[in-house]
Amino acid sequence: MTTQPRSGKSADEIKTLTSANAELTRKVKSLAEENQRYRNFFEQAIAKETTELNSARKALRERDEEYLTLFDMVSDALALIDIETGQMLDVNKAFIELYGYSKPQVLRMKNTDFSAEPEKTRHVTHSRGIYVPVRWHKKKDGTVFPTEITARILKYKGRDAHMAAIRDITERHRYEARHRRSQKMESLGLLAGGVAHDLNNVLSGLVSYPELLLLDLPDDSPLRRPIETIQKSGKRASAIVEDLLTIARGVAITKGPLRLNDTVKEYLASPEFEKLRHFHPGVAVETTLHAGLKNISGSQVHIRKALMNLVSNAAEAIDGKGTITISTARRHVDKDLKDDERLKENTYVILSVTDDGPGISAEELERIFEPFYTKKIMGRSGTGLGLAVVWNVMQDHGGTIEVTSGSAGTTFQLYFPITKETIPDSDATVPFAAYQGKGEAILVVDDVEHQREIACKLLNRLGYKATAVASGEEAVEFLKHGAADLVLLDMIMEPGMNGHETYEAITALHPAQKAILVSGFAKTEEVLKAQQIGAGRFIKKPYTLEKIGVAIRDELRT
Fold first, then answer.
1. CA-CA distance, 241 to 126, in Å (whole number)?
2. Cβ contacts of residue 151 below 8 Å, gap of 6+?
3. Thinking of the domain 74-168, which architecture would CATH place it in?
4. CATH class for domain 432-557?
5. Taking the model in full, what pTM does it have?
6. Quick one: DSSP state of residue 381?
7. pLDDT band at 378 (very low <50, low <70, confident <90, very high)
8. CATH level 3 topology of 256-417
């Protein structure tokens, strides 16, 4: 019987298995170590990435905070606007302050909601330009104002948006409007001055000749009344020319200290005011005059004319019954009046004229001081010079005008600088005989024949011995061989030397030569130059006996 071998592994097999197990263990350990290394690597990488991400997030937050800070620090109003829809995406504090809405309100609105020109804004919203010129916007309270907008396109949260910088240019707009108005007034003034000069030469015959004729007519002459009518018509026309000269600026205004309250009272007692009350019986005029006002330096005639024009304008603005209030006040201004740089820090006396008429529209307020501008809707009539005269009077007096108007009426406030000058006692009335001449020789120098004729007739009637020449050159030639106690010298003569040049040549011959300067135009720089070298008073045509007589008397006495 044969014996089988016993089941089991040999020692070599066991050894092999043991060695394999050891190798496996080593590999597992190696893999575990490798895994740990990878884990450590990834943990370190993740930690680094997390740190960098946190740093990036922090930097982004800081940048956003800096952006928001800068966004809110900008003085111009800034707005982010969706190009497609016009939706407001973000605005800064300056925008909120400018428009008056809260930020939540703004972010529920579109850019057209802020525009006074929504169709233009809607069109611009979809454009891709970088600059938009002046646009009119409106605030929460309804105020409409001009803006200048600069816009650029950028990405905002994945969508195209305008970054718009909006600047309120109200002050610049006012300045430019003032500048344009000033240029227009200067141009119209030059035109008005030229017209006034020619008209005064024409009117001399209507004012001066009737006066001479009336002196020789008996009181019961049937010609007296028609001649007086001619004279009155000439004087009325001359008053209109005076308004033209005031518009022309540089008019010869004699200023002195005066009480504004007295000017108001004198106007209310005048025939002009009585005439106004007759034509406007339904209009009541009330006064509120501040007692103890300081004196102002001005021309009584011109300020009274300005007041008369304002009251007349107010009366015609009232339809039927209403009230005009004339008031005076004293006010200290510690900064420039909103749109007039002429009004500096000072104490002013203010003359106000208020009516309860329908008011003046904003469009008309821009033009009411222009010469010849008149609209029936404003209830104005006449020559169209009234408010232009007021404006120029204030310019000549170093003051300014503030106008406010609405549905409840209109107020004009005239600001006059005060003066420390006192008002002297008035002189007694000088009788006609006191300014008659005693045969003194007067040389009349004028390039217009009928002006020479009128002047000579008036001077002869006053008792002077008058001689006339037609130019400055003739005057110089005459005085080379002769003499005159006084020269009546026209300032504007063409062609040839003007009044200043003529007087300069005359004083080279006779250094102490007395002269009176005359013109149908305003008092110009040439007049001032002649007066600086010795010429006397300046008087405007047309001549009257009293005007020319008093001027010559006073000059001959000096």
1. 57
2. 129, 130, 131, 132, 162, 163, 164, 165
3. 2-Layer Sandwich (3.30)
4. alpha beta
5. 0.48
6. -
7. very low
8. Heat Shock Protein 90 (3.30.565)
